[in-house]
């Protein structure tokens, strides 16, 4: 079984699982205690996962509209993915403004992507992430919720072959849109 190993601020994370206790010698090897059960990485990339889920039609369609779907195949990336419900709650006048201007839509979509694979185990309160679009996203963490800018992360750490997806409840907008 292949696993994805990340190093965040000197913390080892395996497929999104924190290593709680490392390098425990045993008679037949070394044991690392982690906080989750490991499952095989899926064979789907971001585009395949989002397209097959049924909750992300509008988001995927937006990538296809401006011919950015390749970004959801390449990687590795961290994607903050708004659901169709998030698009439905989006102010209609802003949505019209976005979909009628390919440059603004491209910028908005790239604002949801961060280079590299960032599981929640690697995120810290106050962390600033650089987006593919070039602007920053701010992480806020407390015991009850995890936020990116003003968007709540409703489902975190969805592993795909080219990165990780975090589902958010609101569409992210770069400051200038």
From TrEMBL:
Q: Which residues form the FAS1 domain?
A: 1-38, 43-172
Domain of life, per the record? Eukaryota
GO molecular function per UniProt? cell adhesion molecule binding
Source organism per entry reads: Mytilus galloprovincialis
InterPro entries recorded: Adhesion/Biosynth-related, FAS1_dom_sf, FAS1_domain
What protein does this entry describe?
FAS1 domain-containing protein
Q: Which GO terms of the cellular component aspect does the record hold?
A: extracellular matrix; extracellular space
* Gene Ontology biological-process annotations: cell adhesion; extracellular matrix organization
List the SUPFAM superfamilies: FAS1 domain
């Amino acid at each position: 079984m292949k696993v994805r190993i990340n190093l965040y601020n000197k913390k080892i994370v395996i497929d999104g699982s924190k290593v709680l206790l490392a390098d425990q010698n045993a008679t037949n090897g070394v044991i690392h205690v982690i906080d989750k059960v490991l499952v095989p990485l899926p064979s789907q990339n971001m585009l395949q996962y989002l397209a097959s889920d049924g909750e992300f039609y509008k988001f995927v369609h937006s990538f296809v509209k401006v011919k950015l779907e390749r970004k959801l195949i390449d990687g590795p990336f961290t994607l903050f993915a708004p659901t169709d419900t998030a698009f439905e709650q989006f102010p209609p006048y802003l949505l019209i403004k976005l979909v009628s201007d390919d440059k603004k839509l491209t910028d908005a979509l790239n604002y949801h992507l961060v280079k590299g694979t960032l599981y929640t185990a690697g995120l810290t309160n106050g962390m600033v992430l650089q987006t593919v679009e070039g602007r920053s996203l701010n992480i806020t963490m407390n015991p009850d919720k995890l936020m990116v800018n003003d968007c709540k992360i409703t489902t975190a750490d969805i592993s795909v072959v080219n990165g990780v997806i975090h589902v958010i409840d609101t569409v992210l907008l770069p400051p200038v849109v």
